[in-house]
Predict the 3D structure of the following.
Amino acid sequence: MARNNRPYAATRDGGGVDRMERVNDLLRDTIAEVVARELKDPRVDLALLSVTEVRASRDLRNATVMVSALSSPNSTEAEQSEAATAAVEALSNAAPFIHRTIRRRLHMKRVPWPAFELDLRIAGAAEVQERIRSLGAS
């Protein structure tokens, strides 16, 4: 019997790329809810902390969780960077609690271990918008 040469071959249960997208979306929503409602760490209490993306490995052992963190709008760029780094460190320290909580909520055979990273895309977009506003005000 010939093997299927597609990189993400669908299995009998309809698995493949679509399944991983659904799993990533489910993990993102669940992790965001746990961080927002159940995590009690003052370093995570920022003006805006959001889980922007989750990329789980194909074997569902690990997941990279991209987090965007913005503090109050009148803080300096250095203060925002420091607060975002502290928030990612706090989330990394809380990874066992987050993993245990999402494992209880999700009915999956294997729940990936979250590894948190700072997502700089949103901060860069906010900076571009601020520059556009300053050009319009001139």
Notes: The first helix runs from residue 17 to 37. The CA atoms of residues 9 and 16 lie 6 Å apart. Helices lie at 17-37, 77-93, 95-105, 121-137.
